[in-house]
Write a structure and sequence with these properties.
binds D-malate; alpha/beta; 12 helices; globular; seven-stranded mixed β-sheet
């Protein structure tokens, strides 16, 4: 646990080597990266925080904007004595990664954008966020879990790997409604980042589940088409939580990318 910017931020910091920060999606926590941490820790230092309002981290009043979360990550890195790092995130974690990249471009050695998008919410999307925020505060996380789960994993994975489904469900139900509501309101406020993409010079890996209906392949292609030094990995037979659904393929794409960055000299401090 670290005290940053007036809140307690919980995180794991394991392994040794060039630092890699992985940011979880909504409404999850750092435990969603367990499989990636195990795959990377032999060669990299992997830092996985619980973003504010999620997991064991604290929360302040008001919307938890992507910029607030990005500043928390920067403060955490300051506390750990880390200047530059690979920064990556899945979905909301990707929104925070883009916000981090806009605020602190010099601190990003490479980027990983998984199952995410650069565009802001539509007006209708913003209204739905507010409805969901109010619903979470009124009724708890059960309705959020029930409406999200069918979109997070493919039907095949949900049927064949009930353990994964159950762990996702438990992760959502552990999230405090106040934290979820703050993040929903923060996501609704997020800016369009498409103009940032052409300015990114850090090597970038874009990953997407081929069957992701929440942040579909076309969103990943938009990012990859605009970021100069980027590659796209499509994880077949995976939906939104591609890292949990197909950890083998996801980890290979991630490790190959990180090793290429390291061997090419991009990850030096
Ligand atoms: C996530 O997985 O972080 C969410 O689906 C992101 C979103 O709601 O836009």
């Amino acid at each position: 646990m670290a005290r940053v910017r007036g809140i307690d931020l919980s995180f794991d910091d394991v392994g040794a080597g060039a630092p890699v920060v992985l940011l979880h999606g909504f409404p999850f926590d750092r435990s969603m990266w367990r499989g990636q941490v195990e795959a990377l820790r032999g060669e990299f230092r992997v830092i996985t925080p619980d973003l504010r309002g999620h997991g064991e981290s604290g929360l302040a009043d008001g919307p938890a904007t992507m910029e607030e979360m990005a500043r928390d990550v920067a403060a955490l890195l300051d506390g750990l004595g880390i200047g530059r790092a690979v920064v990556g995130g899945l979905s909301m974690g990707g929104y925070v990664t883009l916000a981090f990249c806009r605020l602190f471009p010099e601190r990003v050695s490479a980027l990983v954008l998984a199952d995410t998008r650069a565009q802001a919410d539509t007006e209708e999307g913003k209204r739905t966020r507010e409805e969901n925020a109010e619903r979470a505060l009124r009724e708890g996380m059960e309705p959020i879990a029930s409406s999200m789960i069918p979109k997070l994993l493919t039907a095949a994975a949900a049927a064949e790997r009930p353990g994964v489904l159950e762990s996702v469900r438990r992760m959502i139900l552990r999230t405090r409604p106040e934290g979820a509501a703050a993040a929903l309101r923060g996501m609704a406020l997020r800016r369009d980042q498409t103009d940032l993409l052409t300015l990114i010079t850090a090597p970038t890996l874009v990953i997407v589940g081929g069957e992701d209906g929440l942040t579909p392949l076309e969103d990943a292609r938009l990012i990859q088409g605009r970021v100069r030094d980027s590659r796209l990995a499509v994880i077949e037979e995976a939906a939104h939580l591609s890292n949990l659904e197909r950890p083998g393929e996801f980890n290979s794409a991630l490790l190959d990318f990180l090793k290429d960055c390291r061997d090419g000299g991009a990850l030096t401090a």
